[in-house]
Design a protein that fits this description.
Layout (H helix, E strand, L loop, with lengths): L16 E5 L5 H10 L3 E5 L3 H8 L10 H10 L3 E4 L7 E4 L14 H10 L8 E4 L7 H10 L11 E4 L9 H7 L2 E5 L2 H12 L6 E5 H32 L3 H8 L22 H8 L5 H25 L6 E5 L14 H12 L3 E5 L12 E2 L2 H5 L4 E4 L4 H4 L10 E4 L5 H5 L6 E2 L6
Parallel strand pairs: 1-2, 1-4, 2-3, 4-5, 5-6, 7-8, 9-10, 9-12, 10-11, 12-13, 13-14
Antiparallel strand pairs: 6-7
The structure holds nicotinamide-adenine-dinucleotide.
Length: 432
């Protein structure tokens, strides 16, 4: 098998057949980049429309530059999508790792994908778990479900974790340029995996153990969550005092050793709002701060809803325009989105006509939500709620908001509003 050491002790990382399980935001860009590098890539997904779309040379997600690259490598015969895995030299697992209702990790996708590749895994293969996973998942779940139990890991078969850290919107660049943490189940697994990544990554490749790699990714996202929670807690605290949290944070950040993040409507997406729970679930007594940060961030959407309802109660069945549904700016991802959650809660409250505007979202993706254009969501509304800071909303002239009640959860219009000629009723006081 080509992954084995060369005679001179180096590792042969020449072009190989790669099988990627899961063709979403992580798997598809990885598949396309590896195919462009010359590997023969088979991409596997359980959703037939995903497989069909990719085999037509199209994509099912929004990511700049990805459509063109997928089209190129599919037409060149280097990337093929399928519902079934095939024999390959290297297997990537890039399937979802969500949480259950009770916040425990749902590893069923990793388990199923590992079981699915097992008949196709041969001695000498490399298996790489890229899905963000709780500590021990690589050794316990992937090895036990994907590997023949008679084989010795690190001798007959090589298994590692390499967590992804890409930023949606910049995935193609970051898949190549980001530093990578490679954690093998054994040192030899680590070395072989690192050698493979060094073949296509321009960032630094750091070698460690599987457990450390798993923990590192979770710690990165828990760190982000805790810091965002601090900003979000401040935003609620400041509102109670009638102060502008964004102004408080801007001024506090003038201190040379203070760097508070910007508050928002909550924390969403498949990563930061989910991954810290893996740590909390694994060791509840050692994670009071991480747990508390999750609770603070999860409470923020309700706070925003209360702000809007307080305004609505001053008017007779007003029209509320909500700007943004996705979890972050300029992406089409609705997973765990606080913006979408806020819009649904406002609709459920039934004290206002609620419309939403999001250029990245199609009506079928948000049943029950009335999607309108930007003009109707601003000009025609009594209350305007900025939820996701898409570029199109950042560039909105605040003159369009004159006379409106505005809840700007991300503070993107505050400087413009401060200079507005006519008053805009900007929410400051804590909702009743
Ligand atoms: N999206 C990000 O920005 C990001 C960043 C870093 C890490 N991650 C992690 O990467 C992993 C994948 O995330 P994603 O955003 O690509 O998810 P995704 O939902 O976009 O894609 C996952 C794909 O896997 C498919 N799938 C599910 N079960 C399968 C199976 N048994 N076999 C084959 N395909 C299967 C799904 O149909 C889906 O298309 C997660 O663990 C996530 O936490 C994501």
């Amino acid at each position: 098998m080509t992954c084995e050491n060369n005679e001179d002790g180096g590792i042969n990382v020449g072009y190989k057949k790669v099988c990627i399980m899961g063709l979403g935001y992580i798997g598809l860009p990885t598949a396309a980049v590896l195919a462009k590098q010359g590997h023969d890539v088979i991409g596997v997904d359980v959703r037939s429309h995903v497989v069909e779309t990719i085999n037509r040379g199209e994509i099912h997600i929004h990511e700049p530059g990805l459509g063109e690259l997928v089209n190129e490598v599919v037409k060149a015969g280097k990337l093929k999508a399928s519902l079934q895995p095939e024999e390959a030299d290297i297997f990537f697992i890039c399937v979802p790792t969500p949480i259950n209702e009770d916040k425990s990790p749902d590893l069923s996708y990793v388990r199923t994908a590992s079981q699915a590749i097992r008949p196709y895994v041969r001695k000498g293969c490399l298996i790489i778990l890229e899905s963000t996973s709780p500590p021990k998942t690589t050794a316990d779940v992937v090895v036990s479900h994907a590997v023949n139990e008679e084989w010795q890991v690190g001798e007959d078969i090589f298994v590692s974790h390499c967590p992804e850290r890409v930023l949606p919107g910049k995935i193609l660049r970051e898949v190549v340029e980001n530093d990578r943490i490679i954690g093998g189940v054994t040192p030899r697994c680590t070395d072989l995996t690192a050698a493979f990544y060094e073949g296509f990554v321009t960032g630094a490749v750091y070698r460690t153990t599987a457990i450390t790699a798993e923990m590192t990714k979770l710690v990165e996202n828990a760190y982000r969550d805790v810091n965002i929670a601090f900003a979000n807690e401040l935003s609620m605290l400041a509102a109670g005092f009638g102060a502008d949290a964004h102004e408080v944070i801007k001024l506090a950040n003038r201190h040379p050793r203070v760097d508070i993040l910007t508050p928002g409507p909550g924390v969403g997406g498949h990563c930061i709002s989910v991954d810290p729970w893996f740590l909390v679930h694994a060791s509840p007594k050692d994670t009071p701060l991480i747990h508390c940060a999750r609770m603070v961030n999860d409470s923020k959407p309700e706070f925003v809803v209360d702000q809007v309802l307080a305004y609505a109660s001053q008017l007779d069945y007003p029209k509320v325009g909500c700007l943004g549904l996705t979890y972050k700016a300029d992406v089409d991802d609705l997973r765990e989105s606080p913006s979408y959650c806020i819009v649904r809660a406002l609709i459920e409250a039934d004290v206002a006509e609620v419309v939403a505007c999001d250029p990245y979202v199609k009506p079928a993706e948000v049943p029950g939500v009335t999607l309108v254009g930007l003009s109707e969501a601003t000009h025609d509304c009594d209350i305007v709620v900025l939820l996701t800071d898409h570029e199109i909303f950042r560039n909105l002239p605040v003159a369009m908001l004159l006379g409106k009640k505005v809840v700007d959860t991300r503070g993107i219009w505050r400087d413009q509003m401060a200079g507005a000629a006519a008053p805009i009723d900007r929410y400051a006081a804590r909702a009743a």
